[in-house]
């Protein structure tokens, strides 16, 4: 959890809003630092987190999580974190015939039309347990990332349907939050990815867009972050707000500053 | 005063825009983008129709019913008939709660009504339907719904139908958007600049030229419309009146200015290669004391003095 980013978003783990969809996208740079931020943020907020991790292994997230002050292993053991390790699960699905339907079942089927098994995995992971006392505050779904589902053969509409059902269940029914990462292909004209990105943008409450600098690589400024709030719930007279900051990623934190105000050049 | 008359007796300009959008009937296409969202305008139009006493049906696919109804007071909410396709649009839960036939079935069912009262149908959103249904099927259904009132030879007269469709422009190619645009009687494209929203309204009245106008507006928390003048032309986005203008030549180590005498001397200077009339006269009439020029040539040992002119053989 990056404290400076919390300040920019005007939120803390104790008083985060519920029922929101946050869209992370990156263009010409790596936006995965945002995923690590939200993972540690929601674990510190004592939420039940379902993490659909399709890109990296559990140990990768665990190592970064330790730098940010959360232990994914312990969270998984005490039931706070449900982790779908996409890389391992994909190998199991493809090379071994499983009896029960797997979340990534679409890899095995020639004409998989939808991501219903994956949705059912998420719903099962986050459904409230009737154990009497409420251990966790609210459920959170984290997906890293959705663009890889397009590469694996799902259509953009199928991924949008999956997110729609997740939104209906996690955000509306269970009053939880969702954070998903989509890559922006930018100049490479990927129509399916554009449909996915624009479709999700229309449904999101908060869009965080990490972009590389237009002038190229820089040692002191790693990129710029655009923050766009949409659909403010309190008053519709307030127009959607947008801010831009530049950032530098350090070992255990990320520092943000206004454009052109990097400490290296002042 | 009937409720519809009371609703229209508000400030004339404020109701003009919503009135003109709803007056024609047929399909009203609201084109929005990520930056300039259109759901608030859709809700403002829904509220206006409800206040005018019309029956309002909502096909809700993109947001939950609670979120759509948020901001409406109870008498408007009581007039809205909400068809919820948000919770389980594709029937994944395998219960038969959902309307059989999905959103398309619900839309087609509205074609078969026999009520003479005017009705407004709001599609939230048309983009959701367009991504999941074939374009031709959707257009046929839209045409059938929005043109019910103009069928000749029908025994029961059906009231005016307005279909409000919210379309997210970036999601579709120019083909489907063009087809929907040609089906629409009224097309509203949302945009804006510097925090002010604008609507570009294109009306196609039957047997008349299409009219278009741009209207600046903002939507208040209770979903009524506030028309505005638009941003003034002089306000530039980058000028900041609080930063004083600084003269950059004040602290230089060299002199950039000319004194009056220096300026005069500079202006009276003639340039060496400028061909003025004095120079022309001097060249045409050489002065008598100016001798003709000589060339002094000292040949050295290796020179070949050939008196023959190498150009002799040229036949000029």
From TrEMBL, chain A:
Keywords: Cytoplasm, Nucleus, tRNA processing. It is found in: Cytoplasm; Nucleus. GO terms for biological process: autophagosome maturation; cellular response to stress; homeostasis of number of retina cells; inflammasome-mediated signaling pathway; locomotory behavior; motor behavior; neuromuscular process controlling balance; neuron apoptotic process. Pfam families: ELP6. It comes from the Eukaryota. InterPro entries: ELP6 (IPR018627), P-loop_NTPase (IPR027417). Component of the elongator complex which consists of ELP1, ELP2, ELP3, ELP4, ELP5 and ELP6. Belongs to the ELP6 family. Component of the elongator complex which is required for multiple tRNA modifications, including mcm5U (5-methoxycarbonylmethyl uridine), mcm5s2U (5-methoxycarbonylmethyl-2-thiouridine), and ncm5U (5-carbamoylmethyl uridine). The elongator complex catalyzes formation of carboxymethyluridine in the wobble base at position 34 in tRNAs. Involved in cell migration. This is Elongator complex protein 6. It comes from Pongo abelii.
UniProtKB/TrEMBL annotation, chain B:
One of its GO terms (cellular component) is nucleoplasm. One of its GO terms (molecular function) is tRNA binding. It comes from the Eukaryota. It is found in: Cytoplasm; Nucleus. GO terms for biological process: positive regulation of cell migration; tRNA wobble uridine modification. Residues 277-316 are annotated as: Disordered. Keywords: Cytoplasm, Nucleus, tRNA processing. It holds the Pfam family Elong_Iki1. Residues 300-316 have a biased composition (Acidic residues). Pathway: tRNA modification; 5-methoxycarbonylmethyl-2-thiouridine-tRNA biosynthesis. Coiled coil: none annotated. Its main location: cytoplasm. Belongs to the ELP5 family. PANTHER family: ELONGATOR COMPLEX PROTEIN 5. This is Elongator complex protein 5. The lineage of its organism: Eukaryota, Metazoa, Chordata, Craniata, Vertebrata. The gene is ELP5.
